[in-house]
Amino acid sequence: MHPTLPVQQEHAEPPGTPGAPDGSDGDGRARLAALDGLRLLAALMVVAYHYMAFGSGAWDGPSAAVFPTAHLPASYGWLGVQLFFLISGFVICMSCWGRGVGRFAASRVTRLFPAYWFSVLAVALVVRLWPALDETPRARDIAVNLTMLQSPLGVDPVDGVYWTLWVELRFYLLFALVVAGKGLTYARVVGFCVVWGFAAAVAAAADEPVLDQVLMPEHCWYFIAGIAFFLMHRYRPNLVLWLIVAACFLVAQHELVAAQTRAEGYMGHRVPHWPTAVLLALFFLAVAAVALGRTRSLDHPWLTAAGALTYPLYLIHERVGWLVIRRAAGDVPPAVLLPGLVAGMLLTAWLVHRLVERPLAGTLRRGLRRAAAEIRAG
Q1: Measuring CA to CA, which of 19, 206, 265, 290 is 20 to 30 A from 5?
Q2: Could you give the number of structural domains in the chain?
Q3: How far apart are CA 135 and CA 291, in angstroms?
Q4: CB atoms within 10 A of CB 246
Q5: Residue 171 burial by CB count (10 A; 0-12/13-18/19+): exposed, middle or buried?
Q6: Dist. CA 111–CA 377, nearest whole Å
Q7: Is residue 106 part of a domain?
Q8: Where is each Acyltransferase domain found (predicted)?
Q9: Considering the domain boundaries, does residue 16 fall inside one?
Q10: Quick one: how many helices (H) and strands (E) in the chain?
């Protein structure tokens, strides 16, 4: 975005989370538009995967028959989640710099929950009113989903995409340990990256479920690499940071073999593995370009506006989209239905952002600040 030493645009939003209307993170901190563009790309990849490759049964036939050309590239759309995690490491470190753990926690709550609460209730209502693809969520399960803790508690999610939020929450909790106390410093963050990577490798070797839940040996490499990229962005690249990024890439490309096998199980067909490694490399190169200041020309307001749609789009597109497809596929050609559906989802995401995220996030932020002041005052 800019050369390695200046940090005038130091703060940005986490992937998939909302931003303020002026492009700030809600606290007056500027954002990196290129990262907003990458977030939207990641969300659209996931949308393409669920609509054109996932074995949802929503279309009148298999995806390979309905989309003979597009289904193969869409089969790699699940990798958008890995791109989300990579960006998240970058921007969470960015948004935490200079903040205490209380402000960090409050910022995460105000960005994650308003759109999420709305999406849980809206998706649950739509599916209960027009059940079509699977069992409707039970009221007690919907209530647990509102806490975002359904995954560790073994409760069925209202929408399948919500599994990634539990991954993000665990990353936030781990990073809060670094923020706590003296706050973030260059040396502490580098040490956190190294220790987390080695601890995750030990957890993978130990095959201990509790360690897996805490250290996330399958997903941590994207967060760690994103943090290292931010340190390059804030300071300057050096050998230690490049070694951290390289190690994360090498481990991540190996872990993706198992992830692709799971994705193929959901799709019902196999795809070549080499595009997975190529896309992962492109993700790393794209975030490296931001870190090294190679994306200044992409600082356009429309990217920031588009990035604001990412989180609500991600939250609402899956089950509601499948329901629309199931009900309309027999009457509307796929070439018309699919772009119309994506456009409708983007419009819905914009409405959620304007009518739910912005007003509710502001109210929630003010309430949390008052509560924090009262707690500090004893």
Answers
A1: 19
A2: 1
A3: 45
A4: 13
A5: buried
A6: 26
A7: yes
A8: 33-353
A9: no
A10: 17, 0
